[in-house]
Specification:
Number of helices: 3
Number of domains: 1
CATH superfamily: Lipoprotein localisation LolA/LolB/LppX
CATH class: Mainly Beta
Structural class: alpha+beta
Shape: globular
CATH architecture: Clam
Strand content: 35-45%
CATH topology: outer membrane lipoprotein receptor (LolB), chain A
Number of strands: 12
Length: 205
């Protein structure tokens, strides 16, 4: 479960950074605004990801995003899906799905409008350079966002290669993206969950 939460947090940070225009320095401001402008033009976004932690734990999977507020995260033992109205958290090992209402006011992975309004006043962002990458450094101004620092490695203002996150307990995690697809066709059925025979259902709506 911790691995699932950390994977979700990493993807949360990736999307949040793309929306956040509050920066230090003109270079950082211009670069992040380019990221924001590019993301605003995307109707869909998908990628594979591989996650590794300093303690040796790891995970891999895929994620899919579609405006407005539709997202799907596929992990080895769990799928997290929302269509912007309902959230399905499906545990493959237990063959159980937990269903809840999507709540825009929640500071969750799926609350993209919340990210836009919250991050500009909750983050200190600067820009570094490492090798051939631009590195956006995100430092929350309080503990509510759930992490101490995040670094987003970008080859340019359109592509994300890697994210490094340090949580509030100083545990570090790296997530690497590959096979990024922008504005490719994603069927709406990807963002709903069908209850098949034998699946245990916990409905919290």
């Amino acid at each position: 479960m911790k691995t699932t939460k950390r994977s979700a947090l990493a993807l949360y940070v990736i999307i949040a950074l793309l929306f956040c225009p509050y920066t230090k320095g003109q270079d950082a401001q211009g670069f992040v605004k380019s990221l924001q402008s590019n993301f605003d033009s995307y109707e869909t976004l998908s990628a594979s990801f591989t996650q590794s932690s300093a303690n040796g734990q790891g995970a891999s999977g895929k994620f899919y995003f579609k405006k407005q507020n539709s997202m799907r995260i596929e992990l080895a033992q769990m799928n997290i899906i929302t269509d912007g109205k309902t959230v399905w958290n499906y545990n493959k090992r237990e063959n159980k799905v937990i269903i809840s209402n999507y709540k825009e006011k929640d500071a969750s992975l799926f609350s993209i409008p919340k990210m836009i309004s919250t991050y500009p006043t909750s983050c200190d962002i600067s820009l570094e350079t490492k090798d051939k990458n631009k590195v956006v450094v995100l430092k929350p101004l309080n503990k509510k966002l759930g992490f101490k620092q995040a670094k987003l490695f970008c080859a340019d203002a359109k592509s994300i290669n890697e994210v490094q996150i340090t949580d509030l307990s100083d545990n570090s995690m790296t997530i690497v993206l590959s096979g990024v697809k922008i504005n490719s066709a994603i069927d709406s059925s990807m963002f709903t969950f069908t209850i098949k025979d034998g699946i245990k259902v916990v409905d919290l709506r």
